[in-house]
What does this fold into?
Amino acid sequence: MPAKIIQPNSEPFKKVEIDPITLDIIESALRSARYEMDAVLYRTAMSPGIREQHDEFPMIASPNGKMVVGQFGSFIHGFNRDYDGTIEEGDLFLTSDPYSCAGSISHAPDWLVMRPVFLDGRLIAYAAMFGHMTDVGGKVPGSLPTDAAQIYEEGVVIPIVKIYKKDELQEDVLKVILHQCRMPQWNESDFNALVAAVRLAEKRLFELCDRFGVDTVQSAMDELLERNRRAMLHLIQNSVGEDERVYFEDYVDDDGKGLGPYKMACTMWREGDLLVFDFEGTDPQSDSSINMLLNEEMFKMFVGVYMINIFDPQIMFNDGFYDHVDVRIPPGTLLKPLKPAALSSRTHALARIFDVLSGLLGQRNPDYMVAAGFSDSPHFMYSGYDKEGEWYQLYQIGFGGIPGRPVGDGPDGHSLWPSFTNVPNEFLEAYFPLRIDIYQSIPDSGGPGLHRGGNGITIGYRALEPGEMSLHDDRWLTYPWGVVGGQPGRRSKKEIVRVDGTTELLPSKCDHVKVEAGDLLLFHTWGGGGWGDPYERDAALIALEVDRGLVTLEGAKRYGVVLNDDLSVNEAATNDLRDKMRAERGEIKLIDRGGDVEELRAACQEETGLEPPAAPVFREHIIKGLRERAERAKAGAAAE
It folds into this structure.
């Protein structure tokens, strides 16, 4: 049964003609409200992941459920389809269950609050926000077990609940939820911050309606969505050939249990005004926690963000174009796992989607193609009891190299998500028993190209108290590939230097890494792939980068550049070396992966020091049973 919206006032909104100035004012006001939601959250949350790193995503949607402003796209359609209850004035919903909202949030630590906004008995909008909690219980601190087999191992999973009814907090429900968490004070503070953010959005919507009239605001939302639809339709028609099929695949390197890599495959084509993405060929779901329940509406937003940034950055992001994109994901696969598949380590597949998009959309337009970049949000977690007997727990997201792009170099040491910021080292050292001994760019880690891939970074975490660490990362086996002549970036690496001087190489995904005071974790992230011919890059710029420590003298030779002792360019030697390297290279590759999967697997031990992952074994009979059960449940719901 779909959700039932209770509206005492059934009068439809009137269509109003809006002049361009008024439309721009309302658009700017909605944008401002979206950023105010961020600001409220940052100033009132307690966990560093939200307060300092900004791991949260706001949204304001129209009454028909389409995102007008926001970042991750709307989940309202899936919410209304899957929630079997009423939506009334004074309600505020909370969920952390990806399976209850069609994957609009993708693992249990993400808490989503949603407020239906009513005015004079009519639904006028939705305001929503989700943020990543430092802990929600489960088998490991941080609630992101690398070896989980079912979602039930990953902490408290909150179904869609009315956490506020008639604007009254359901305190008993919240107490039960907080009782499962290792840091309940942080969770409660972050929850209240999320609520405050959506209430602020509601207030701004009321102010807009009071100033311009509710019919004008509704018509403005409709026009903003329609304007986006027209602009995106033009991009779709002119950037993707009709009936021309383009295929691309990329990989999640391993599952944390010694198996991998896992293939993510997608074919793209256009049927008239409809852009189709078909993920047939993607590997079956994993027995581990790297599965990603990819919400189709979210993927559509990724498509729009990518196309807008590449082709026309002036277009406003919203859901207006969604009817022109069709996303097909086979159930029981890595990107559409069936309950109760574990999801906690979904960050690798989630972010790798952007590399797949680049590979698809760039093949027909190589000049607009972007290399593989920092397609991940590596997690570092550190927890234990300090000398005072107090529990400490840190969750932090790592940064790396953004890919080389048609417009220029990829930034060094940046986040996949543009709005994320780094947690200041001083903050970490003030609130947690650790010291940041190293924080620096990794020279030569960005792939060479006409436009260099961004460098990864090394963070050296010195433990000051005994405890445990957990690591989540990827791209240690496959390379972040280069494009149109650009070369791959350097892969990731994790190692720990014990206080006795011994060094241990760590896998990219592991929990329960015990540390003593004085142990040093070296967290090396990967660089972005290069874009374009590296032998065409300005030699003087490379000399400057050598001087700044971004490229080494040996690394300069990957661009065919020879420097003198004073770091000036040796023009004659550079020209000779570049001529030689061009002749040896032969034809420029559209995509340089640094080798296929089997070649990388064969060279893994020698190149990385780690055993190669074994080929995944998929339990097809279990997946078949889960698929049949899901189909029966869907059929039963439709019959009701």
Q: What stands out?
A: The two ends are 6 Å apart (CA to CA). The CA atoms of residues 606 and 612 lie 10 Å apart.
